[in-house]
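Sequence, please.
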């Protein structure tokens, strides 16, 4: 994810990223990390598209 370890701990603490503890370390499943990243990408892309007033597909002809 290329983020600071504290950021990952904050996401785990908030429940946004599922993890389990094994000893002193947290263990994350690859599929959970990928699902979280996919959710963020979809959310951000939708927000950008809505903010620009654009639609997917071909631009309107004038």
């Amino acid at each position: 994810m290329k983020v600071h370890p504290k950021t990952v701990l904050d996401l785990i603490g908030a429940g946004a990223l599922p993890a389990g503890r094994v000893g002193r370390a947290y263990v994350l499943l690859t599929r959970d990390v990928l699902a979280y990243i996919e959710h963020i990408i979809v959310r951000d892309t939708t927000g950008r598209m809505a903010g620009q007033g654009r639609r997917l597909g071909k631009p309107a002809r004038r």
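Strands lie at 20-22, 25-27.
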